[in-house]
Amino acid sequence: MSISSSALLSALAGFSPIPDKKIHSILSHVMLLKLSAFNSQTTRIIVCLKKEHEKVWDITKEVLLNRIGAERFQKIAPKLNGFQAAYGTILLLSPFASYAEHFKAWSEHTSGMHQLMAWVALEAEGFGANLQHYNAIIDEKVAAAFNVPDTWKLCSQLVFGVPEGDAPAPKEKKPLKELMRFEGAEI
């Protein structure tokens, strides 16, 4: 299964092709089946649908407006409105851990695997998705709005909805020879 380029780039509509109960089931399986380094189970998620999803993006818009000012905010407001128009946002979090030197890196790896698995599983049901990283500036307000324990840290926001409209032009990519090497292969 793969993530289609159209789902990566499409606008996302605010409805679901499946019942919320099925979304819950899919994400429950992702959380319980995904392996983690030393079975650390470091990923936590909060699934925000409908009004709760809108609240995530109201918080993000409020924080950004106050942080960057109205003039700069107007340039990014359409993108944020697009995220808010989707059906849901999965807040991906990880607990703090100070007992092991490499625990933070392993936790980030585990979170990345959960992000990808959730994205692919939701896409298989007809959703499109995009991954956002406003967490550095919205942590405090999101924690208050969703009663997030102090021991959890927001890592990213996976926005999902049904793809609609034309996909924007693909982003420019570096030449593959700069991004990938094959050693010992006969190509």
From TrEMBL:
Residues 17-161 form the Nitroreductase domain. Pfam families: Nitroreductase. InterPro entries: Frm2/Hbn1, Nitroreductase, Nitroreductase-like. GO terms for molecular function: oxidoreductase activity. It comes from the Eukaryota. One of its GO terms (biological process) is cellular response to oxidative stress. Signal peptide: none annotated. PANTHER family: FATTY ACID REPRESSION MUTANT PROTEIN 2-RELATED, NITROREDUCTASE FAMILY PROTEIN (AFU_ORTHOLOGUE AFUA_3G03530). This is Nitroreductase. It comes from Penicillium argentinense.
